[in-house]
C-alpha cells in the first residue's frame, strides 16, 4: 500500500445507500481508487458463503472508477478488483428491500489473515529482545 492517501471521489468521500448512509471509504493507492469497507459476520451471505454489495453501491463504484474493493473483517482482509467482482458475481434480484444484490463467494476474494499478521508482529517483537 505505497503512496496511500484519502481521496474525496464523491460527496461524503464514499458511496451511500439509498437512505443516505455512507458505506466505507475511498483512498488512492498507487494511482488506483480503492473502496474499503469494514464488515462483520452480519454482512456475510451465509447460504453462499459470500460477501455482498447492493446494486446502488456497485453503480457508484463504477461511476467513481473504483479499481479495488477491500473488505476488512475481524479475521482478515478480503480484496478483489471491481472488474473481477463483476465478472464472477451471483446476481440476487430484488434480494434486499427490492434491490438487486451482487454476491461473490469468499473463495473468489484474495484473503490475508489478520491473525497471521498479528502473530508475525508478536514473533518479530520477541526477536528484538
Can you walk through the features of this model?
The protein is of the alpha+beta class. It has one domain (4-127): Trna Endonuclease, Chain: A, domain 1. It contains three helices and ten strands, in the order E-E-E-E-E-H-E-E-H-E-E-E-H. The strands form two sheets. Strands 1-2-3-6-7-10 form a six-stranded mixed β-sheet. A four-stranded antiparallel β-sheet has the order 4-5-9-8. The two termini are 29 Å apart. Mean pLDDT is 83; it is low at 1-11 and 117-129.
How does the SSE layout of this entry go?
Blueprint: E1 4-6, E2 25-29, E3 32-38, E4 44-45, E5 50-54, H1 55-63, E6 66-73, E7 76-81, H2 82-88, E8 90-96, E9 99-105, E10 110-113, H3 114-127
Parallel strand pairs: 3-6
Antiparallel strand pairs: 1-2, 2-3, 4-5, 5-9, 6-7, 7-10, 8-9
- What's the count of strands? 10
Element string (H = helix, E = strand): EEEEEHEEHEEEH
Which structural class fits the helix and strand makeup?
Answer: alpha+beta
* Portion in helices: 10-25%
What fraction of the residues are assigned to beta strands by DSSP?
35-45%
Q: How many domains make up the coordinates?
A: 1
CATH fold node name: Trna Endonuclease, Chain: A, domain 1
Overall CATH class: Alpha Beta
Major sheet strand order: 1-2-3-6-7-10
Q: What does the main sheet amount to?
A: 6 strands, mixed
Instruction: Describe the global form.
Output: globular
The overall pLDDT, averaged over residues, is 83
Discrete helix count: 3
Distance between the termini: 29 Å
Quickly give the CATH architecture.
3-Layer(aba) Sandwich
Low-confidence stretches: 1-11, 117-129
Question: Whole-number radius of gyration?
Answer: 16 Å
Amino acid at each position: 500500500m505505497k503512496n496511500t492517501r484519502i481521496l474525496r471521489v464523491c460527496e461524503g468521500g464514499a458511496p451511500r445507500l439509498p437512505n443516505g448512509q455512507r458505506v466505507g471509504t475511498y483512498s488512492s493507492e498507487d494511482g488506483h481508487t480503492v473502496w474499503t469497507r469494514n464488515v462483520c459476520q452480519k454482512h456475510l451471505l451465509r447460504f453462499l458463503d459470500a460477501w455482498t454489495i447492493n446494486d446502488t453501491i456497485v453503480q457508484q463504484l463504477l461511476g467513481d472508477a473504483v479499481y479495488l474493493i477491500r473488505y476488512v473483517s475481524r479475521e482478515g482482509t478480503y480484496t478483489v478488483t471491481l472488474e473481477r467482482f463483476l465478472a464472477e458475481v451471483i446476481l440476487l434480484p430484488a434480494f434486499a428491500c427490492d434491490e438487486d444484490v451482487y454476491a461473490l463467494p469468499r473463495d473468489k476474494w484474495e484473503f490475508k489473515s489478520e491473525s497471521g499478521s498479528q502473530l508475525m508482529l508478536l514473533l518479530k517483537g520477541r526477536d528484538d529482545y
